[in-house]
Design a protein that fits this description.
Bound molecules: flavin-adenine dinucleotide
Distance between the termini: 43 Å
Helix content: 25-40%
CATH topology of the largest domain: FAD/NAD(P)-binding domain
Subcellular location: Cytoplasm
Pfam families: DAO
Protein name: Sarcosine oxidase subunit beta
Largest sheet: 8 strands, mixed
CATH class of the largest domain: Alpha Beta
CATH architecture of the largest domain: 3-Layer(bba) Sandwich
Strand content: 25-35%
Number of strands: 18
EC number: 1.5.3.24
Number of helices: 10
Order of helices and strands: HEHEEHEHEHEEHEEEEHEEEEHEEEHH
Catalytic activity: sarcosine + O2 + H2O = formaldehyde + glycine + H2O2; sarcosine + (6S)-5,6,7,8-tetrahydrofolate + O2 = (6R)-5,10-methylene-5,6,7,8-tetrahydrofolate + glycine + H2O2
Number of domains: 2
Length: 419
Amino acid sequence: MSVMRYSAFSIFLNGLRKNTGWTSAWRFPEPKPHYDIIIVGGGGHGLATAHYLAKEHGITNVAVLEKGYIGSGNVGRNTTIIRSNYLLPGNNPFYELSLKLWEGLEQDLNYNAMVSQRGVINICHNDSQFAAYMRRGNAMRLHGVDAELLDRDQVKSMLPFLDFDNARFPVQGGLLQRRGGTVRHDAVAWGYARAADARGVDIIQHCEVTGIRRENGRVVGVETSRGFIGCNKLALAAAGNSSRVAAMADLRLPIESHVLQAFVSEGLKPFIDCVVIFGAGHFYVSQSDKGGLVFGGDIDGYNSYAQRGNLATVEHVAEAGVALIPALSRVRVLRSWGGIMDMSMDGSPIIDRTHIDNLYLNAGWCYGGFKATPASGYCFAHLLARGEPHATTAQMRLDRFERGYAIDERGLGAQPNLH
Ligand SMILES: Cc1cc2nc3c(=O)[nH]c(=O)nc-3n(C[C@H](O)[C@H](O)[C@H](O)COP(=O)(O)OP(=O)(O)OC[C@H]3O[C@@H](n4cnc5c(N)ncnc54)[C@H](O)[C@@H]3O)c2cc1C
């Protein structure tokens, strides 16, 4: 399919034409009666899966069904942090694959996603945490991932505005991943959508899946707000709504949905040039190109499918932020919003086929799924096309909880609200 290539030259040319030459970035097709693969969910993961199915495996008779508009879910609501600083072998190679895909994403998609490898630094506040970060950094290096352990003075030279002598949470050092950073979240949805559409994938917005039709036990298609659509394979990538969609096939998932809020402040002069993550509470912050501080904290702590949270968590996040950066107490918050997190029982995701024929699952991203978007799509496409898991997702199986092979990165046990 022909699609307009974006370049400095195309901007120049369209400037001369008074910007009348731009075409729609993707089509708005009517659903066909049948597809080889239907993907439920036009978030980052669903759209990335469609792109890699088409690009890597030549499978283009694919539809992405989205109940709202693409980017209206978590992909457009997150705090945009990407990193691959994981400890466990079940996670680390996967997130590193993702970071490598981020590094080439804009060229791959011919789309400016504002990938900014400005560095991610986890601050540590006591001896045992310093030892834990040392261990994590060593594990990362053993996997070929960049990691630097910083002492207090090194952190101070990078982030002089932290409260180094806080009586409860003195800063002792940090774990830095320079290749981590931020990516403009909704541009990721748009870039993947445009690239998948250009290869022939149908992206069908305002099409809610309301039922999963099975014949002789096998999935044969979905009931939607726009009628029945048949398929050979059904791929669920519905993030916070995973449990509700899977329940349409009588599948009960080891997932709870919780709301997570994020915040942006008024625009400030640039002073945070990396991503800073508090080690003694839940708080992480970066500064957007417009100057706003983009920050978040913990989930609200109760099960919910609502995309808004409560004020107690706003207070909790603000307290943690001010404990780390006292100057924040004078900053005004401009906006806040919430998204629905599919919290798995061990804090790690699931990319697997289910016991129901033709039904595949991509879920359990908790609040770390944005950074996983490229690898998630890449590996889910691999599973759908080849019928076997990609090597980096070998442990991300649905039955790992029954078998006792949890991937519990934080060692917290089966407590989805704590991961
Ligand atoms: C406030 C916040 C901050 C976060 N910060 C980060 C971060 O800094 N770094 C990070 O790595 N991760 C972060 N995350 C997590 C990350 O955003 C998610 O894990 C990830 O985006 C989930 O995958 P997705 O993009 O496919 O989800 P979504 O964008 O939510 O896509 C799922 C889609 O499925 C659609 N859908 C649901 N049910 C149906 C149905 N029945 N029919 C059709 N469509 C349906 C939804 O409308 C939605 O568009 C954050 C999340 C939030 C909310």
